[in-house]
Amino acid sequence: YSSNSGNIGPLLIVDGLQVDNIQYLDPEMIASMEVLKDAASTAVFGVRGANGVILVTTKRGEEGKAKISLSSAFGLTQPLRHLTACESYEHAKIFSEAQLSDKWNDPTTSLTFSPAVIDMFKRNADPIMFPNTNWDEFLFNDLSWQTQHNITVSGGADRVRYFVSLGYLYQDGMLKSFENYNSNYTYNRYN
User: Fold this and answer.
1) Could you write out the DSSP letters of every residue in 84-134?
2) The pTM is what?
3) Edge-to-edge strand ranges of the sheet holding 17-19
4) At 185, is the secondary structure helix, strand, or coil?
5) Which residues, including other chains, have CB under 8 Å from residue 13's CB and lie 6 or more apart?
6) What's the CA gap between 62 and 40, in Å, rounded?
7) How would DSSP label each residue in 20-75?
8) Which residue has the higher pLDDT, 179 or 33?
9) 68 with 151: CB under 8 angstroms?
10) Is 7 exposed, middle or buried (0-12, 13-18, 19+ CB in 10 A)?
11) Contact 87, 137 (CB under 8 A)
């Protein structure tokens, strides 16, 4: 959630520092999260905390030998629904019916799609001049990959403690790529 000017949202504090957007913080780095929403607990933050405060504390190193942790997750994403459109033949037929209904008594009505053109769409006689493309199937993938990897190293001694975390998130888009043009959108996040 973004608390930039114009958006009314809670104040976001990560390890004592105000941040504008928490979406870039790797969930593997979060030790605890606290939501302050009553007037007594947000009074310390003044007017900035009027809409609540979210306090995030990241993980810390603990005294002892170095601990190495690795996590990986793989998944598939898919759209909740695909919009369906009518085929070229159905569109031409309905569009012509609408034109005739609008100007039913005008003898000079010229249709955008003549009966011969509608028949060409119906028979799929000339796919170049009268195409019937299923754009949803042509442009979109059914599924796309998502992967996330994290490695952490933590430890320390009496006076020095450390916690180092490296993270990578990749989400593939739903658009298909073509020979000379890649219209797909992807998301890469490094932490």
Assistant:
1) ----HHHHHHHHHHHHHHHTTT-TT---SS-HHHHHHHHHT--TTTS----
2) 0.65
3) 17-19, 11-14, 53-58, 30-36
4) coil
5) 19, 53, 54, 55, 56
6) 33
7) SB-TTS-GGGEEEEEEE-SHHHHGGGGGGGTT-EEEEEE----SEEEEEEEEEEEE
8) 33
9) yes
10) exposed
11) no
Q: What is the 3-state secondary structure (H, E, C) of 74-94?
A: EEEECCCCCCCCCCHHHHHHH
Instruction: Give the pair of three-digit tokens for residue 44.
Output: 């310390």
Burial of 70 (0-12, 13-18, 19+ CB in 10 A): exposed
For residue 36, give the nearest of 16, 57, 50 by alpha carbon.
Answer: 50
d(CA 9, CA 187): 25
Pairwise CA distance, residues 23 & 163, whole Å:
21
Instruction: Specify the pLDDT at position 148.
Output: 94
For 16, which DSSP code? Answer: T
- Span 37-50, pLDDT tens digits: 888 888 888 888 88
Reference 30, options 158, 178, 167; nearest CA is: 167
**What end-to-end distance do the CA atoms of the chain give, in Å?**
18
Q: Are 47 and 87 in contact (CB under 8 A)?
A: no
